[in-house]
Design goal:
The complex is a heterodimer of chains A (299) and B (335). Chain A is mostly helical. In chain A, helix 12 packs antiparallel against helix 13. Chain B has a domain of 179 residues: MetI-like (MetI-like fold), CATH 1.10.3720. Chain B is mostly helical and 335 residues long. The chains are: A mainly alpha (299), B mainly alpha (335). Chains A and B meet through helix 6, helix 7, helix 8, helix 11 and helix 12 of A and helix 1, helix 6, helix 7, helix 8 and helix 10 of B.
């Protein structure tokens, strides 16, 4: 075997190995190295497990009132104590994970979906369409997000659906911006031109060719955005504009504990830790994912 | 520079009109009859109808919006349903408190966040860096209102060092400022750190070191001045967030600011006041963003020229968002 033949052989083997290792595999390999991100992911999996199996895990039903055990500090029977109606705080926290994760993920999905559609249309077409869409995004972006959420929640009335919408709308501009910028960088590339040349429709080009190529920034924005959405929903409930009692939402629990916290400080601790842990896990995982998806960004 | 400033200000006008339309639409569709609210349950239907006519509530959406905008141009934001005072007057009485708190928060956050970020970057991978990173992560993930409750419990209820609520003197500002600024300190420290790290690795830093300059000169003269733009941006954003985010904490500490007034007005269905407060807060945020843009356009001529080029290729994003997208802090620090 000549040197050239040997070289060609080695190159061929290398190519096969590289092809086998898909992009997802590569991302996972990089993510695995980041211990903090893995810790965040494990906490998230645990939280999802708790949310799904809340009925089995929670020691008591979340709305069960027991006037013989009102405002009890943490004890063996009630590990996180009881509230002003004698309800078990730990059980409420466990059920609350359902609400918070639901709001976080659904609102973000809705926001991401709308943002991606608007952003990709704006980026792909440019011109007047781009101008109209992005000026509207500018308007939404100029209203402080908490204030926008409060105004929407006030307009729609309290409840889970209105909290979902209130949180979702504020996240649209960020997605639209990220997707628009990414679309603009890929829209003039050869593979899009090729797709157009074989007669693919605009919607097909956007969905099949452009979106898969700009997925990384969307995923990162989404993971980091869920934490923000959960915090925002908790703030709304804390103000009494989001989810209403007796639904066990963490922010609403903190709000109602304010009246009793002077003599029962334990009431303030558990819901706060629950919010913080969830957002922390999402941030750690999101940061890790960003580094794994785009190592260039790693600092 | 003047041309740039003029363009940016002109670009703000349609956005502000848009904001007014969005807020007006939201509140237009809000359930509840303001006339019934004002007259109470005992009023007859005829009386309510008469008041509705008088207030122009029976007119169509477009008529009401244009009337509102016409009044707005004259500086009239309507009349509060509850106090019967002009909304402008009510807002002006509360605005200074919110702005002062946001200002104190910003100063406090910069005084702690920037040095913490610099130290963390200079001493990368040491225990100081680890502490700063852990604390800033906690600051970002901790709900501001929870931190506020914990501080009240510890410093006001248990130790009795500071007052828990109200705003009657300098002492009363300490707890709100600390709890609102936690997230800003964390975000500023993180941005300063990453921005400094990027600069520290550049060639001219090595040259400065090779010239034998002292570490102090290298850090403050060479590194910090070049790392300033992302830091400046994040400080501006945090100031704007402080204005909006204060809504929740004003509630916790019973601070008589714009945020508390807005939430109370929502609960009382006092919509002219809600509308006015939201518009004022949005206007303030836009002005802060504009201020930051102008500030670093004057610091960095590249941004001015970038704006001109951007316009040509239909990329009208403001430098604030452009820089934010680069630092990955687009969504950071929202509370």
């Amino acid at each position: 075997m000549t040197v050239i033949q040997e070289f060609v052989q080695v190159r061929k083997t290398e190519e096969v190995v590289t092809k086998k290792r898909s992009q997802a595999h590569e991302v996972w390999r990089r993510l695995k190295k980041n211990r903090l991100a893995i810790a965040g992911m494990l906490i998230l999996i645990l939280l999802l497990f708790i949310a799904v199996f809340a009925d089995v895990i929670a020691p008591y039903p979340y709305a069960k009132q027991n006037y013989d055990e009102v405002l009890q500090p943490p004890n063996l029977k009630h590990l996180a104590g009881t509230d002003e109606f004698g309800r078990d705080i730990l059980s409420r926290i466990i059920y609350g994970s359902r609400i918070s994760l639901q709001i976080g993920f659904i609102s973000l999905t809705v926001g991401a979906l709308v943002g991606c559609i608007l952003g990709s249309i704006a980026g792909f077409f440019g011109g007047v369409i781009d101008n109209v869409i992005m000026r509207f995004m500018d308007i939404l972006h100029s209203i402080p997000r908490v204030i926008l959420a409060i105004a929407i929640a006030a307009s729609l009335g309290a409840g889970i659906t209105s909290a979902l919408i209130a949180v979702a709308v504020g996240s649209i501009p960020n997605f639209a911006r990220v997707v628009r910028a990414a679309t603009m960088t890929v829209r003039d590339q050869d593979f899009v031109e090729a797709a157009r040349a074989i007669g693919a429709s605009t919607s097909r080009i956007i969905v099949k060719h452009i979106l898969p190529n700009i997925l990384a920034p969307i995923i990162v924005q989404a993971t980091l955005g869920v934490g923000t959405s959960i915090l925002l929903a908790a703030s709304l409930s804390f103000l009494g504009l989001g989810i209403q009692p007796p639904v066990p939402e963490w922010g609403a629990m903190l709000s109602s504990s304010r009246t009793y916290m002077r003599d029962n400080p334990y009431m303030v601790i558990a819901p706060g830790i629950a919010i913080m842990l969830t957002v922390l896990a999402l941030n750690l995982f999101g940061d890790g994912l960003r580094d794994a998806l785009d190592p260039k960004l790693k600092k | 520079m003047l041309k740039y400033a003029f363009r940016r200000i002109m670009a703000m006008i349609p956005v502000l009109i848009g904001i007014s339309l969005v807020i007006f639409t939201l509140l237009y569709f809000t359930p509840g009859d303001p006339a019934r609210m004002m007259l109470g349950d005992l009023a007859t239907e005829a009386e309510v109808q008469a008041l509705r006519d008088e207030m122009g509530l029976n007119d169509g959406f477009a008529v009401r919006y244009f009337r509102y905008m016409g009044d707005l141009l004259k500086g009239d934001l309507g009349t509060s349903y509850v106090s019967k005072l002009p909304v402008t007057e009510e807002i002006m009485s509360r605005l200074p408190v919110t702005v002062l708190v946001a200002f104190l928060v910003m100063i406090f956050a910069v005084l702690i966040g920037v040095p913490a970020g610099i130290i963390s970057a200079v001493k990368q991978y040491t225990w100081v860096d680890s502490i700063v990173r852990v604390l800033s992560l906690l600051g970002i993930t901790m709900p501001a209102f929870w931190l506020a409750l914990l501080l009240v419990l510890l410093l006001a209820v248990n130790l009795g060092w500071l007052p828990a609520s109200g705003l009657y003197g300098p002492k009363y500002y300490i707890l709100p400022v600390i709890s609102i600024s936690a997230v800003s300190i964390a975000t500023i420290a993180r941005t300063t750190r990453s921005s400094m790290l990027e600069v520290i690795r550049s060639d001219y830093m090595r040259t400065a070191k090779a010239k034998g300059q002292s570490p102090r000169v290298i850090i403050f003269k060479h590194a910090l001045t070049n790392a300033l733009i992302p830091i400046l941006t994040i400080v501006g954003i945090q100031f704007a967030n402080g204005l909006g985010g204060a809504v929740v904490n004003e509630q916790v500490f019973a601070i008589p600011g714009l945020g508390k007034m807005m939430v109370d007005a929502i609960k009382a269905r006092n919509y002219p006041l809600v509308q006015g407060s939201v518009l004022t807060l949005a206007l303030l945020q836009s002005m802060v963003n504009l201020g930051v843009d102008l500030l670093y356009a004057s610091v960095d001529p590249r941004i001015r020229s970038q704006y001109v080029i951007k316009k040509k290729v239909h990329m009208k994003e403001t430098p604030v968002t452009a820089v934010l997208a680069n630092t990955g802090e687009l969504d950071g620090g929202l509370k």
